[in-house]
Amino acid sequence: ACPDNYFPNSSVRQCIQCEEGCQTCYGSGLEKCTKCNSVNGTLYYLQIGIDKCSLNCNVGEFKNSTTQKCVLCAPACAECTSLLVCQKCQSAYGAAYYLDVDKCTIACPTDEYGDLQNATCYPCAGGCRTCFGPSLFECTSCKVDANGDSNYLIYGTEICNLTCPDGQY
Predict the structure, then answer these.
(1) How far apart are CA 52 and CA 164, in angstroms?
(2) Mean of pLDDT over the chain
């Protein structure tokens, strides 16, 4: 048996050193690693589906420094730093997902709307309690403001206002 960082070469009956970044391997070359190590304090990570150690993981994966392996993000998460912390969302299972702080959600919280362009939740404007866009003209329901004053959805519009126009109550 060969020690760590070496593999047996039966044709020459010798232990040959693995490539830099490989702690254990089954042959020469970067694509034959089975476990990664660190070089001068820099961690290498075993790529998913291939026997290769690399300094980085692919998009949609994160570096697990405990196992020194690349790990897939959650399905709705396009970029993440762990299974629990997402940085960017994507559509999954036929549904759009939105980034709400560091989680991917299918529906944004009350007071926020989902922007399909960048799959992120953003706050509704002014007096909107629920909305479908960023402006004051895209409200679906209204809220009570910080002073305790009620906002009202003006009939026939998507506008919240503190007062109703003439002819409405």
Answers:
(1) 66
(2) 91
Tokens of 61: 């994966």
SS3 30: helix
Which residue positions in the chain have pLDDT lower than 70? 30
CA distance 140 to 45: 48
Q: What is d(CA 25, CA 44) in angstroms, rounded to the nearest whole number?
A: 14
Residue 78 has a pLDDT of: 94
What is the model's pTM?
0.73
- Report which of 156, 130, 127 is spatially closest to residue 141, judged by C-alpha positions: 130
Phi-psi region of 68 (alpha: psi -120 to 50; beta: other; left: phi over 0): left
For residues 45 and 116, give the distance between their C-alpha atoms in angstroms, rounded to a whole number.
33
- Looking up tokens 């047996």 gives 8
> How many other CB atoms sit within 10 Å of the CB of residue 105?
17
